[in-house]
Amino acid sequence: MDSNVVRMRLAEAIDNKELSCAKIEKEAGLPRSSLRNFIAGRVKETKIEVILAAAHYLELDLNALFTSAEQTGKHHSTSKVNVEEGSLDTKLFLECVKSLMKYVSEKNITLTLTTSLKIVEDLYEYAAKYTNKEFDPSFIDWYMNSNKF
Question: Shortest CA distance to 90 belongs to which of 108, 58, 53, 65?
């Protein structure tokens, strides 16, 4: 998934709720300008923590935020999370996101949005193809160590 889709969805939610990025940053405990710079396109990527904190503050469904636009029918996406052209397993997807967030928090790792989405995509594909759509917690350790994160 392209980070521009996430940027647009966040911007739309901020606009719909008539909020400012500054207010969200302050109340969600985000670094000053972190969300503003991402939404305004001054930075191409931001930390996944910024996206998740903003989504939580805005009460956005993570599935809707990260689901490929092709699946929502609103935008074209080049995401490869089309495991054998099946539909997205939201439970598995969210489990992959939560597992990654837990891992990076425990290991004190900082990732960009693009990198985080790529990792989630890889975790999801592995689970969907090789483990009958069940997340294997040991796979994230192997994946992160193999890719030197």
Answer: 65
Residues in contact with 29: Cβ distance below 8 Å, sequence separation at least 6, in sequence order: 53
Per this entry, what is the length of the chain?
149
The C-alpha atoms of residue 34 and residue 68 are separated, in whole angstroms, by: 24
Residue-wise pLDDT for 23-55, tens only, equals 999 999 999 999 999 998 888 778 888 888 898
Alpha-carbon distance 138 to 79, whole Å? 25
- Of 135, 98, 128, 121, nearest to 3 by C-alpha is 121
Name residue 97's amino acid.
V
Phi, psi at 17, each rounded to 5°: -90, 5
pTM: 0.55
Please compute, for residue 59, the number of CA atoms within 13 A of its CA located in the half-sphere on the CB side. 3
